[in-house]
């Protein structure tokens, strides 16, 4: 501080010393005039520097900071350092804000900040998409003007945010949203929006699955239970009646056994680690085995043909592939009338190995094709029970195909038969070595 005052007063002190010399040489009038001129010059210089400072402060940029000397050079140097540090801090904050915006944009939830009046102060891109908001026009708008559904408005007014609100947006009723408000910072609230459509579908599938399993098991259990009661009540049961009852009971228990076996297979495929135990599978031998299984199931009622157009083998899990091939063949036989034909083929298409089963059966209407691989999805429930199917075969095939990176293709026309094909990736093709 002393150095500052000394440097500020230096021009006046030097001028006073010179004025004293002038007083001694000339007169007091000359000395006073000299001091007056000196003080006016100092004031003008400092006024000029203050003016330059004021001009610069109106647009404070590092490249336009004024130049000066003396004490003013120190002042402008300090201002230069302050502005430079301010710009650095400002840039750091801008970078941090950009990082935060990038992070919130990557969040799997939509996020919006509401003030005490439920006005939108900020929202990330996913919130804009889910609530159909415009980031330019809707900022600082009351969210109840933009999302007008009564349950949402009521949720905001009740201020009971312990549980999330589940709703379908008015403009996108095909999706389901979970909305939760979290108060923070005194009077602000964080709005979290999650798209739970897939979870709702999975939950609906789970409910349908439980209902379908219960329904599928109830029928055979009712039959078996009824015959057991009849056998217990019939004192004069003859051999023929007993044989018939036992045959039907065995048929129904076999159906339950098949259902449980398919459920266990499906559960294993879904719960096993993604790593597949695989080896080179001799397709020719495997196809002959499943062909014989198909012949046994058909019992001479259909014309089965096996066509092996490629000698190549396949990299995969033999047990799973046999299960998938057998399911496709048994489905074709079950839904093909007597004297109908079933063609089993192994060939290559554009370098990819393909297993296909083509039948001349009843065919499938186009609206059912997308849902065929759903568990227990049946086009005709009564016919499905007559054929002995569990309703899980194609679901098992789909999972095995996924584990082998294969694609299940279905082409069918009602009354004209169907073709089910497993198209494997080229990398699973194994060319046998020739000696």
How would you describe the overall organization of this protein?
With 435 residues, this protein is α+β, with helices and mostly antiparallel strands. It folds into four domains: 96 residues, no CATH class; 89 residues, PAS domain (Beta-Lactamase); 71 residues, Orthogonal Bundle (Helix Hairpins); 159 residues, Heat Shock Protein 90 (2-Layer Sandwich). Helices cover 53% and strands 17% of the residues. The strands form three sheets. It has a five-stranded antiparallel beta sheet. Helix 7 packs antiparallel against helix 8, helix 9 packs parallel to helix 10 and helix 10 runs antiparallel to helix 12. The longest helix has 37 residues. It is elongated, with a radius of gyration of 43 Å. The N and C termini lie far apart (100 Å). The mean pLDDT is 78.
Q: What would CATH call the architecture of the largest domain?
A: 2-Layer Sandwich
Low-confidence stretches: none
Largest sheet: 5 strands, antiparallel
Assign the CATH superfamily of the largest domain.
Histidine kinase-like ATPase, C-terminal domain
Oligomerization status of the protein chains:
single chain
Estimated share of beta-strand residues: 15-25%
Strand order of the largest sheet: 2-1-5-4-3
- When the domains are counted, the total is 4
Shape call: elongated
> Would you state the CATH class of the largest domain?
Alpha Beta
Assign the structural class, choosing from mainly alpha, mainly beta, alpha/beta, alpha+beta, or little secondary structure.
Answer: alpha+beta
Helix percent reads 40-55%
Radius of gyration: 43 Å
CATH topology of the largest domain: Heat Shock Protein 90
DSSP strand tally: 13
- Could you give the order of the helices and strands? HHHEEHHHEEEHHEHEEHEEHHEEE
